[in-house]
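Hi W., the magnesium ion complex you wanted:
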Amino acid sequence: MTHDLRAKNLTLGYSDVDIVRDLDVVIPDGRITVIVGANACGKSTLLRGLARLLRPRSGQVILDGTSVHDLKSVEVAKVLGLLPQSPVAPDGITVGDLVGRGRYPHQGWFRQWSSEDDRAVAAALEATGTADLADRNIAELSGGQRQRVWVAMALAQDTDLLLLDEPTTFLDINHQVELLDLLTDLNRESGKTIVIVLHDLNLACRYADHIIAMKQGAILAEGPPIDVIDSAVVTEVFGLACEVVPDPVSGTPMIVPRGRHHAARETVSAAS
Ligand SMILES: Nc1ncnc2c1ncn2[C@@H]1O[C@H](COP(=O)(O)OP(=O)(O)OP(=O)(O)O)[C@@H](O)[C@H]1O
Ligand SMILES: [Mg+2]
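Structure:
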């Protein structure tokens, strides 16, 4: 099913500080969008705004033609799922119960827990490799195990739009790639629209159909990574001197930081 998620002149903030300022964005339907940017530039704030968790100061977020604040939260939750950056689990909850909570938006007065819910939870546990943890208490898990369980909960919600805020921070490199491959499978096979905040620029460039580079609450550049990411943009966004070379596996941009202690290689080899 196709959806239209966009923000118009969106300003978001906390107390008296504006963080996201007058931002316009259209989330490409049925594609994978990756948001990158320096710490505190407003990525999580934007995601929360898109998911209706923050009320705009001005402007609006529009889902399928309606301002999200004119929709009930449960209506939004049937279409759009958000995995926050630092989700908090209820005390003492097991993995299976937490993932089951992803099904809440699908229940109601007349619709109790069903075999469809069972199937969705089992599939989410299976896809994230957490089925063998189902009876464990969330508090007992490692950081990476816990993060995969949260992803399972988001998957169990089974929404057409899925927003994930740094879902790979605690994962080892193999699990990072597995998770991004899994999200790509979901995108390709079920046509889900996926928006991910990522700090790994190389993985961002590989997996994004559309990349959004943010700086100080605004979009500095967006488009296909190959068109958008070069050393000038990385320097502008992160203040980092770097080389950008083709990723030997995917051909997408690969960022090689210079740093202060490793910039002399060309000089040394030129002198020898
Ligand atoms: N609940 C809040 N109350 C007040 N200020 C907040 C709140 N959440 C975030 N901020 C501030 O808003 C700014 C943007 O924060 P945000 O979490 O959107 O950044 P981010 O781009 O996601 O950064 P990171 O890469 O570190 O996750 C920061 O200066 C932060 O301190
Ligand atoms: Mg964040």
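The pocket of adenosine-5'-triphosphate (ligand 1) is lined by residues 14, 19, 37, 39-45, 85 (CB under 6 Å).

W.
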